[in-house]
Amino acid sequence: MIFVTVGTHEQPFDRLVQYVDELKQKNIIKEDVVIQTGFSTYKPQYCDWSNLFSYQQMAEYVQNARIVITHGGPSSFIAPLQKGKIPIVVPRKRQFDEHVNDHQVEFCREVAKRQKNIILVEDIENLKDIILKYESVIGEMSEKVESNNAQFNKNLENLVQKLILESQER
Hints:
By secondary structure, the protein is α/β, with parallel strands linked by helices. Helices cover 46% and strands 11% of the residues.
């Protein structure tokens, strides 16, 4: 199953919703697709969809999906990352009146560059190939994904030790 979420921003994200629906119509996507359409005006004809889902439903869809496709809002692409999944991220763009500016594009570029744990799709026409090659794309990425957890834990441990020592000296 593929799960698509466009978030709850009040501007439509018809470009993504319609493109995925067309891929399903053409049988390019063969598996089930569920789309959270938000305030999009395009109503999918070939995918299951709802404007909004509860937090519980969203969590279940993310958990059960083979692929999660999101807009560029951090909450939307962090959810699959927390489940150990690499999301496909299609940022909203101002030129299509999907957002007030291009901060999603800029932010997602930085995340993709620094963290290397999202698949950034800026040109919607590239989405089809990414979906079809998803397994090989994430396979290549897994070697590049960097985690800062070990360094964070070490720094936290050092800080705690320092605080304990300081409190004992008082």
